[in-house]
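May I ask for an example protein's residues together with how it folds?

___
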Amino acid sequence: MSARLPLISTTERRSRLGRRHRLAPSARATTVAEAADSVVALHATDAATVFLSTRARLAEGGPGMVEQALYDDVRLVRLLSMRNTLFAVSTELAPYVDASIARAIAVKERRTFLKHLDEDGQGLDAEWLARAEASALDTLDTRGPLTGSQLSAAVPALRQKITLGRGKKYEAQQGVATRVIRLLAADGRIRRDRPRGSWTSSQFRWVHTAPWPAVPAAEARAEIARLWLHAYGPATEADLKWWTGWTLTDVRKALSAVGPDQVRLDDGSTALVSPGDTAPEPAPEPWAALLPALDPTGMGWADRGFHLDAAHRSALFDYAGNIGPTVWWNGEIVGGWAQRPDGEIVWRLLTDAGRTAEKAITAEASRLAAWVGDARVTPRFRTPLERELVA
């Protein structure tokens, strides 16, 4: 039965990465939002990742172009979303990410915090929290943008402390400011503005903003599944479940609404693509890419075997499964890179990719060094190869 399905080979899957993830030079984006949309969302736990992932996909423009999209034009925003992790998405896509994922996270976060307030026994409740949030928003309106510490200093309620695990071995006191700010951000009532320091800093200032327009959750999940299949297909139900963090039921309903086509892979297994997306993908020109830690192209599937040799995994991932900085050649991870304290970009191949590849990778490393300039980038999640290269 599967033999009758259209075949999408590993080579063709890698060609799709070059074109659809805008990594081949001829496919690079002209805007930051276009670069983000090409992979649906950019991982944003590490502030530098948003910039470096965008850089790899832009035809031209420096860090200032990304800053303008994030903070001036607000064409790109950070949302707590997939897998309860921070991602950056275009403002056009944000309502769908919010409705399909972020809303449920926000509800759960608020329920958990209210439970902690109740267990603390100081009489802090939902009404107290509402007043604290209103005070924080009023302060941002009159004095913002403010960092979390500045906002806490200006709002007395945010200096409140509660006790977690009272009477237990792990009993600890915790300030409420970070939790309240996280709730406001999860609800879409505040957003991250320019940080203190350079583009590599995570000390963000906060501004008051309006929540995203309401979209029915089922409609939003279907739209996210459709966009994800175009960017990451061929892929499986398990891949989409991992990437989104949805329940299996929600994944299946979303895919049913999209109506994907089934295709055959080189190993004889089957996978899904967008409806009608079975035609051969023209191979782009040979391309090299230096992608940052947590880049979506390295983290887009639960099963990454088509672009990653399993033997290289231990060098390129940390203990928790976070990918480090990677070197790519024609859709395959062939090594890793790092920036040394003096600013030098260094890289190492884990497989013999040939002289043409080495020449292209050297050129791409030079392009990266020029783009980063005087900034220094250290991944939040350190991997064995990245540490070795820095040392």
